[in-house]
Amino acid sequence: MFKMTHHACVRGVVIDKGKVLVVEHSHSNRPPFWCFPGGHVEENETLVEAVKRELKEETHLDVDVGQIVFVQEFVKEHLIELFFECFIVDGEARLGSDPDNPGMPILTRMKWVEPEELLELPVYPKALSQILFEDHRNFPKIGFQALYEKEEIQKDK
């Protein structure tokens, strides 16, 4: 039996007309900050399904999900966060909600920012903001595929 060691979060990096979409979070226990829209992967949900659902909830956008562009691990929280390049399919971006966090509005603002603004605002993760600032058209991509069954190892004949 496998033991669960990490929880997964997904985030969408949406770039349209040279601007990057970010949402502001306000929590009672820390100052407001900006990040890329997304959240936790739900039980029985694929990573791609989670990205699409989270973007719809938080921004009202329907997206196609591309490659992974960044990965970060929160060691103490046993959380891995995967950032996917996303392409708008339908909808107009407007602030949604974060149903995972009941109570006061957690998402307080949403905006399209120029890549250089990512460095001026408290946008996290800072490392991804720096990458997007340096070249938002050609940022590195990590190959991704979803397998529903393990690939069989071919035996030499």
TrEMBL record:
Tell me the protein family, please.
Belongs to the Nudix hydrolase family.
Q: Which Pfam families match?
A: NUDIX (PF00293)
**Every Nudix hydrolase domain range:** 5-135
Q: Which residues form a coiled coil?
A: none
Which superkingdom, per the lineage? Bacteria
* Name of the molecule in the record: NUDIX hydrolase
Cofactor dependence is on: Mg(2+)
Cite the GO molecular-function annotations of the record.
hydrolase activity
Species of origin = Kosmotoga olearia (strain ATCC BAA-1733 / DSM 21960 / TBF 19.5.1)
